[in-house]
């Protein structure tokens, strides 16, 4: 029986072709995808496509669109063996992270991909990314179960866990890295799956969450940050969770005004989670004197969460109604492979 894959086009470079008259890049008709990429017909898959009525530049991505994507997958979950989401690369890591939390007990592949050049460009990376993403979304074990039952991101011959990636380069085809987790698969002459890094088939029933909280803010520390700027962020209205991007293993200044402002913020029942500005490694509060005081006043550790995963996980937990100590406990507990076991 033919494997069925639903391709969802949100927007982005991958789905653009140049209008021969105006020279302007416009979205192509995904309903005619086999005409655009005839190589796909050799797979024998049944491919259907759904295009957002108005393609979205990924710089305009919003939590409401993540919820819409989750709903599309929910409505079509029983009818398809896998899903491919075509997305602009700038915020793809955020969308992949958000979906990993929203799609609980996911038993099928949801592969996000895009490209650095439009699909009609002579040197495009779009065709390879699209073809291999579809092949991965359709891949199955002998019993018919999905080979990669999780939200993932495919780019430039690498398949990554969706909530472990960062976009690190704006020009190279190799646009993404997964600094704290090995690739799930690598594409060469054949696709080599690393089963020991892929999440197992879930035991629970597939469930889609439909709420996200946006009372999340972030602040990146830098030498010379003024007290006024720092406190202005903390006094932002409706702020419940602050993602604090610290130095190295989660270090920060020991100035009394800095610690006092954070302490006051936390005492009002709000949460501060430290993540690292480094692309790799983990936060270890208390390892150095410059982070020990953060630990003492109640800052919690984001361990090896990416910034993208820390923001979307906080939004997800707020959307589920988590507050206080329960929120802090869940932020530090692995939910779907987003952080290493403590």
Provide the fold topology:
Blueprint: E1 4-9, E2 16-18, E3 25-27, H1 33-36, E4 46-51, H2 63-76, E5 82-86, H3 92-102, E6 103-104, E7 109-113, H4 126-138, E8 151-155, E9 158-161, E10 166-167, E11 176-177, E12 185-187, E13 191-193, E14 207-208, E15 216-220, H5 227-234, E16 241-246, H6 256-267, E17 271-276, H7 289-297, E18 300-301, H8 307-319, H9 324-331
Parallel strand pairs: 1-4, 1-5, 5-7, 7-8, 15-16, 16-17, 17-18
Antiparallel strand pairs: 2-3, 6-14, 8-9, 9-12, 10-11, 12-13
Helix pairs in contact: 2-3, 3-8, 5-6
* Strand content bin: 15-25%
For CATH, the homologous superfamily of the largest domain is named as L-asparaginase, N-terminal domain
The DSSP helix count reads 9
Give the low-confidence spans.
Answer: none
Distance between the termini: 43 Å
| Helix/sheet category | alpha/beta
Please state the oligomeric state of the protein chains shown: single chain
Return Rg in Å. 21 Å
- Strand order, biggest sheet? 4-1-5-7-8-9-12-13
Largest sheet: 8 strands, mixed
């Amino acid at each position: 029986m033919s494997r069925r894959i639903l391709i969802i086009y949100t927007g982005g470079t991958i789905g653009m072709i140049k209008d021969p008259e105006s020279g302007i890049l416009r979205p192509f008709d995904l309903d005619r995808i086999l005409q655009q990429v005839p190589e796909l017909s050799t797979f024998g898959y049944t491919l259907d496509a759904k295009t957002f009525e108005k393609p979205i530049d990924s710089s305009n991505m919003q939590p409401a669109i993540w919820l819409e994507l989750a709903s599309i997958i929910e409505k079509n979950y029983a009818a398809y063996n896998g899903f491919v989401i075509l997305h602009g690369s700038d915020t793809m890591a955020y969308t992949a992270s958000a979906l990993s939390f929203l799609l609980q007990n996911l038993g099928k592949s949801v592969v996000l991909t895009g490209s650095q050049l439009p699909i009609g460009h002579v040197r495009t990376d779009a065709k390879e990314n699209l073809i291999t993403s579809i092949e991965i979304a359709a891949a199955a074990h002998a019993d018919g179960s999905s080979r990669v039952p999780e939200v993932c991101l495919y780019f430039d011959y690498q398949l990554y866990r969706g909530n472990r990636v960062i976009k690190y380069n704006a020009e190279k085809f190799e646009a993404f890295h997964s600094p704290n987790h090995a690739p799930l698969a690598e594409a060469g002459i054949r696709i080599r799956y690393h089963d020991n890094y892929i999440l197992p088939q879930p035991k629970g029933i597939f469930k889609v969450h439909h709420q996200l909280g946006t009372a999340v803010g972030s602040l990146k520390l830098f030498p010379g940050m003024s007290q006024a700027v720092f406190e202005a962020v903390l006094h932002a209205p409706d702020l419940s969770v602050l993602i604090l991007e610290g130095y190295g293993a989660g270090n920060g200044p020991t100035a009394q005004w800095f610690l006092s402002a954070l302490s006051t913020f936390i005492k009002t029942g709000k949460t501060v989670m430290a993540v690292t500005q480094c692309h790799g490694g983990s936060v270890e509060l208390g390892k150095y004197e410059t982070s020990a005081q953060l630990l003492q006043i109640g800052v919690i550790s984001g361990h090896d969460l990416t910034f993208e995963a820390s923001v979307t996980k906080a939004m997800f937990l707020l959307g589920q109604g988590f507050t206080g100590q329960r929120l802090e406990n869940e932020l530090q507990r692995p939910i779907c492979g987003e952080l290493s076991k403590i």
